[in-house]
Structures
1.
Amino acid sequence: MKRKIEFISQRHHWTNISVTLFTYLAINFSFNYFGLAEFSFQTLLTFFTFYIGFYFLFIIKRERYLTEKDGDFFIHDIVSDLQLKKSLFKTRYVELTSQTKSGYYRIKVYPGDVSEQDWTAMMKKCT
């Protein structure tokens, strides 16, 4: 029986959003300082409204298609290869990849994203 993998944490997603906000503000203020552009609060608000909206739509889409059956993990009902990797800041994560005829599906799962039971099962399956 297939079981949907539930994602429980969005912590690193908020980190990505805050880094993007800081980068956007730094670039915008530097352009303003050198006279290349004017800072506009309306532009900032519009950009981040759309950015956060699209970002969380992507997260919802990602969460819908990850399932587990008999110890195998599936993305869009295609068996996934699991690899344990480290990010730039040495954070461990599991990268799930499912090959299709025209490309692949890939999802990164961090330890706090899923339950301890699901994380342990993924770690056992990693190559």
2.
Amino acid sequence: MLAIAHGDHDAALRYLGQLAERASAAKTGSAVAEVLSEIAAPTGGLLHLTRDVLVRAWNTARDLQGSAPGTEPEAFVQVGQTTGLMSQAAHAMLCARNHAARVSQPAAPTPQASIPQPAASRHR
């Protein structure tokens, strides 16, 4: 567990929980787009910030190991590859966000046109 103030950790968990709730409760494409923006925004987005932490940790670990680029242990190589995949995922999420923003509110169901009924004939 990270050595951060317990309140900060709890606040981060609450924020992620609220973000998940907002995603589940979204009623419009723009509401979905807002959530995706918070996750994938190029600056300040959660995915970007998480990727930045991984890159810094990867660089620091490599420096501490004294590994030259290209000679890192496999685990470090995989972390480096993961950061690239995170960038690709952020791009895909931004494309999805743009699409969601164009989607209008769900259309109300259209009533079916009533089929005219023949006039009742009178039998005597």
3.
Amino acid sequence: MKHRIAVVASSVLAAIATVVMTSASSALLYRPQVPAELQRKQ
């Protein structure tokens, strides 16, 4: 019985981790435009 609870808990935590990482990686891909004042002039 303990083994089954551990397997279910592991599956639930893995699913939560997948959702968190998926939402975090989409935030990393979002790159807002840098204002002209902050850009280097060449």
